[in-house]
Every structure is written in C-alpha cells, then in structure tokens.
Amino acid sequence: MSKYQLDDSPIYIDGSDVPKNKLNVTDSEIIHEIENELLIEAYEKFSNQLNEHTKFDEKYFISIHKKTFDTLYDFAGVYRNVNMSKDGSKFCLSNYLGSESERIFAELQEDKYLTIYKDKKEFAKKVAYYQGELIALHPFYELNGRTLRLFFDLLAMYNGYKPIDYSATIENGKYIEASIDCVQFADTSKMEEIILNGLSS
Length: 201
Description:
Layout: E1 5-6, H1 28-49, H2 58-69, E2 84-86, E3 89-90, H3 97-110, H4 120-137, H5 144-158, H6 167-171, H7 174-185, H8 189-198
Antiparallel strand pairs: 1-2, 2-3
C-alpha cells in the first residue's frame, strides 16, 4: 500500500503508513482492521437512518467521515489544509477544496440527488461523474475512498437500489485504474462501467 505524499503534514507515525491515532496503534494490519470494523458499523448506522428527508449535501458527506472515524483519528471530518498526491495523481489543491466542494454539492442538489434519473444507465453515468469529482477532490487526509463509496451506496439506496457492488473491481485493481482515470484524465468511462455492473434493485 503506497503512502500519500503530503506537503508539510506529519499525520503518519514516523517510518510507516499508519496515521497517528487515538488508540496509539502502530501496526498497519491492526489499524486497517479497526478502520474496517468502524466502516461496517457506519454502514449499519447510516443505512438505518436513511429516509426521504436525507440531504446528500456537503454537511452529510463530512458527517459520514466524522462519525465513522472520530473514535480513531483527530482528522476525522476535517478537510486537509495541505496539497496531496498519490502514485502520480495530484488531487485538488488545498486552497481550492472549499470552493470546489461547494460547487460539487450544489450541482448534486440541482440534480435532485439523482432522483430525476430513472434510467439505470443514466443513473450510473451520473454517479460515476460525481464519484469522479469527489475522488479528484480527495478532501480528507485518509479514508477518502471508503467514505465516498459509503456516501454513494447510501445515495443508491435513497434512489431504490442496493449498495453498489465494487468488490471484484477493488480486488483486481480495476477500481483503482478507474479512479486514476478520473483524476488524471477526467475520464469516468471505466468508473461508469463499474457502477453500472455493480448496481442492482
């Protein structure tokens, strides 16, 4: 697992890819197990709370990260204030995070949280677009991918679908390839195919 390249931000324990955490865990496997357990709990909690009045706005997106990982990390629910890159992909400059995030979620609101897209293929295309935008935004120091997938799983459920099945593409690296295309080329075609294949009613 490659580590993020951060400008002047010592969020990791020296010499490791483990972020400094409230439990003082230093083992990478253990920290990932804890993160996954917290994510499973979050899926259950947010799914149970989902209703017709749920607003998929910036506040909700941030609350997912905050409420899921707050017991583990001080940076839970906090947008990064440094520039970040990973494996040659440069994410949104920190100076523009606020304005870009506002733009994305304003656009999603204008799209009525995708309730106006009744055709499955059209819905998948829109999810891929917004997912690509948030992948490129990469607003948090860590756990961006898992947070945005939970966000879009909830959005899918809100629109009458089951959570999106990414499992095979995460295991074989196709999801990472699609994510890189979103960031480096603004190309969401691979992500659209993944989401379309992972959607079911």
